[in-house]
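Weekly puzzle thread! Below is a chain. First person to post its structure in token form gets bragging rights.
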Amino acid sequence: MSLILSRRDLDFMLYEWLRVEALTEIPRYADHSRETFDAALDTCEKIATELFATHNKKSDQHEPHFDGETVSLIPEVKTALDAFSAAGLMAAGQDYELGGMQLPLVVEKAGFAWFMAANVGTAGYPFLTIGNANLLLTYGTPAQIDAFVRPEMDGRFFGTMCLSEPQAGSSLSDITTRAEYEVESPLGVQYRLRGNKMWISGGEHELSGNIVHLVLAKIPGPDGRLISGVKGISLFIVPKYLVNDDGSLGEHNDVVLAGLNHKMGHRGTTNCLLNFGEGIKYRPDGKAGAIGYLVGEPGQGLACMFHMMNEARIGVGLGAATLGYTGYLHALDYARNRPQGRTAGRGGKDPASPQAKLVEHADIRRMLLAQKSYAEGALALNLYCAKRVDEERAAHAAGDAQACERATLLLDILTPIAKSWPSQWCLEANSLAIQVHGGYGYTREYNVEQFYRDNRLNPIHEGTHGIQGLDLLGRKVVLKEGAALGILRDTMQAAVECARACADAALNEYAGVLDSATARLAQVTRQLWAAGEPALTLANASLYLEAFGHVVMAWVWLEQALVASAALAGGKHAQDDAFYRGKLAAAAYFFRWELPRVTAQFDLLASLDRTTLDMQDAWF
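Winning reply:
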């Protein structure tokens, strides 16, 4: 059994639950079949297992090093990334015309899950590059796509996203990097940028020939002052090396690494403080400022960047899910092999009796079940979201505006959940994996302590829990007069009705519980917005996010349980019996141990509690 991911579970999610083979009926994916999907997944599993997982611990122990001139990484990182690019995986979801495979996004993400689980630090480079390229394919000009996206798809250029600044983290309206118009150029309107960017993953390295920075900056107004708020923010391509008309690399742009940040996890991904327009050494034309090319329209930079940010948010959730998953598999393997103590049925306190394996203890099984429910549920949710993107694209291509809008709204409301729920609960899964290992769990000799450190970043990456809660309660649930929430409720209700109609008594029970939870969610949402005081409504948004996420996850588990129950009733092969029963046990755990949490949470939310809102600084 692989300790990275479960291929059997991926097959279940893709083919039995999500039925991704049906996507081959869409013209874009007509050349594909289960065989081509499996071949892509086989390639991902092989490269992840042989080249990514093998240096995960080493890259964590030997962080990137900056000597003042060059950033150095262990050589295994480049070897792995070269293999990733050579296999065509950087362009796996892109058009044939771009050298891609035209894989459905759900299959592409299932394949990429192997790399995130095997080595999230090394996987960070293609993760960012693919998102960078997707943004430019949406908003870039043909010349920008030729100059920057095509080399990214080949793995010759890597990409970043540069949002935060030392004084402005999540508060992007407060950025001060400025962009001043210079000239019209073949690659778009050319500006000179000056400012500083902080926390830039993949911001400097020698892994690729060039680095394509997507930078948020403000264009000054007629009076020379920066426009306040987000309306003044524009988006620019700022390459590490300028690109000549023939595609060759030119002068080093005025982008300088000021230093590396040293995080507790994701240590294999360089994390940088970058200075734009301050490196005297990199001014071959004698002018100040890094050369950047406008992407999209002036003042629309944040709207453009959200294309990459939303993709990254779901990707962060996927990464959190995979780290929880691999931690669970490591804990399960350890529990099955480690003798420890005796159970009441295995000699009790008789020291002469054989020791029991950890997995035989009920409390260990409790912790393993919790991990299984968190990790498998989180992975399922993220793959579900990826398939919705495929269906949204298909509806758009077919000109079905209504289906396209429904898919878009459903994705909008699920994105904060898909990012934050795995980041919270798969981190808890990693904590439980350490607990299962006992004293060995928090030693560096065992992998689970690194999984926890790596995953601890995800509650902060791409918008903290608090920001996701504000987005969900403050924007998404009231979007188009509650249309997104209504579509989600309809989707969950369909699963409830299906479960009520089946012969499985346990699923009938879960259907009733979920139905009540969704009704209470809608009721509490109305109560919060009826308060007439926005600050009070949003004061406990993080708790709302957590309760909302648990309801969504209960629905995901009900969906999986329906498939597993039907498979058992249909007389599947004997070797699959344990797999399906494991799915049903995880669903039972979630409904009986996890979903009841939301009752107290909804009660607190409905009370419009002012404790956090009224707390004063001086009282701490």
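Puzzle host: Confirmed. Bonus trivia for everyone else. The chain has 19 helices and twelve strands.
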